[in-house]
C-alpha cells in the first residue's frame, strides 16, 4: 500500500502541463538566437521558419494564462 502511495505521489508530481526541463536533444533542436528579426520582413519571407519579436504583455486582470506566462519567464 505504501509503495502504491509513493507511486501516485511520484506520478502526480510529474504531471504538469508546462515543459520546465528540456533534455539536450530537445534543446539542440531549437534554432540559435542571435538577434531579434525584422518581424515584417521575416513574416513575408516564405522560407522564414522562425520569426522573433520583443514585446510587453499587459493585462487588466490576472488570468490563469498571464500567471502561466509569468511563471514560465521566471523559470527560463
From TrEMBL:
The protein's name is Secreted protein
- List the keywords (alphabetical): Signal
Organism of derivation: Parnassius mnemosyne (clouded apollo)
* Signal peptide limits: 1-17
Amino acid at each position: 500500500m505504501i509503495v502504491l502511495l509513493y507511486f501516485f505521489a511520484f506520478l502526480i508530481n510529474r504531471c504538469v502541463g508546462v515543459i520546465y526541463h528540456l533534455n539536450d536533444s530537445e534543446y539542440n533542436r531549437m534554432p540559435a538566437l542571435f538577434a531579434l528579426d525584422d518581424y515584417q520582413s521575416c513574416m513575408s519571407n516564405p522560407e522564414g521558419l522562425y520569426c522573433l519579436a520583443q514585446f510587453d504583455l499587459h493585462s487588466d486582470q490576472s488570468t490563469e494564462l498571464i500567471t502561466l506566462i509569468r511563471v514560465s519567464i521566471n523559470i527560463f
